[in-house]
Design brief:
homodimer; mainly alpha; 10 helices; 67% helix; 0% strand; globular; disordered N terminus; disordered C terminus; DNA-binding
Chain lengths: 205, 205
DNA sequence: GTCTATATGCGGATAGAC
DNA sequence: GTCTATCCGCATATAGAC
């Protein structure tokens, strides 16, 4: 009668690289739900099904873990954009916008990016967030070939979406219909997607 | 030889309301520089020249202090917009944009707003940040009389500026000229203003 | 590779004097 | 109205077993 009922005393052995990726995914969801400050390494650990010291062991510090999370998130955005580039035509603004909206379905991805844009003042995180933002900017302008003005408008719309996501202005929290109207005019269907994906207050994503 | 050199052992007596305002101003600068998480109540206290327990005493908790700060900031944005409304004409988009940019000169005002848009997930702060954002949205649309589309574009540009401010993409941190180009195309002169106002890494504002 | 146990430090908050 | 002293909790990080 020793360990019968205790589930998950020890997570199944796994290659460190795989475990890393698993933790990064969980961490993205948790950081996305509660922001950098509001999340503890223990929250991340429990979401990933491992012990708190182990996530610290793997990533060194909480800040380094978060940095790994946002680097991965920014890369993901670019890969999503890149995927819709082939055969780029007149619709590339709409298609890339849709690609961004599609990321709403990947837990925490957009919230994490939104949050990272407010952390430029942090000496460790700031440089990484800036580089991520810049990399998207450059991609849109140089690889997708947007004009200067289209690039600005595209990024501005993205930041508006980030703010709406960061504020939890839709979903269980939404009170003002005008906001979802706006969202709809930014990216058709994004509002509906957000509504579905948003957890109730206090819930995890 | 007792208290000769000790400066400010006790802050000069003052009406609580005035002290409150003084602390709010200092707190705006400090929260703006280091974000909500990165700031301690002691940081605020020292910036305001009072003791740490006293700021807690006046505001109850750190979260309540921050809430007071962002409420004040959102009100300030609206008052700045309202000030340029009389005799509103064709230029109202440009004039309100300039009014927003003018707030760059008030320490921490824009950074605080930028940061608050990432804290929607916080059960205490979230509702206040949402209400602040909504109030600006409504003002632009209903009182300034912007069209639905102009409102969205205006807010989107504002969020882009917030992101640039939040990321510290200009000033001592700026590395990519393309970003200041963009800022200039959003709001003429804003980039130069930002450059002047941004502190070096790690410095207080 | 992963855990348990624990040290450590920091920051928010309280008590109470002046 | 404002401070000093201090408590206390919590979360990060370490040590070391398995």
């Amino acid at each position: 009668m020793s360990s019968m009922m205790s589930e998950n005393v020890t997570a199944p052995r796994m290659k460190a690289a795989d475990r890393r990726e698993l933790i990064l995914e969980a961490a993205t969801a948790v950081f996305g739900a509660s922001s950098y400050v509001g999340t503890t390494t223990d929250d991340v650990a429990r979401a990933a099904g491992v012990s708190q010291p182990y996530v610290v062991r793997l990533f060194g510090t909480k800040a380094k873990l978060y940095i790994a999370v946002i680097e991965r998130a920014y890369e993901r955005v670019i890969s999503a954009f890149r995927a819709v580039l082939p055969g780029l035509d007149e619709e590339r603004v709409a298609r890339m916008g849709a690609a961004y909206a599609g990321l709403l379905e990947e837990r925490g991805m957009l919230p994490v990016i939104a949050n990272s844009t407010a952390l430029g003042g942090d000496p460790e995180i700031g440089p990484v967030a800036r580089e991520g933002f810049n990399s998207i900017w450059r991609f849109v302008r140089d690889e997708a070939g947007f004009t200067e003005e289209d690039t600005r408008n595209f990024m501005a719309n993205g930041m508006l979406i980030n703010a709406i996501v960061g504020l939890r202005l839709v979903g269980a929290y939404g009170t003002d219909d005008s906001v979802t109207e706006v969202l709809d005019s930014c990216l058709p269907n994004a509002a509906a997607k957000l509504r579905d994906l948003m957890p109730a207050a206090g819930e995890a994503w």
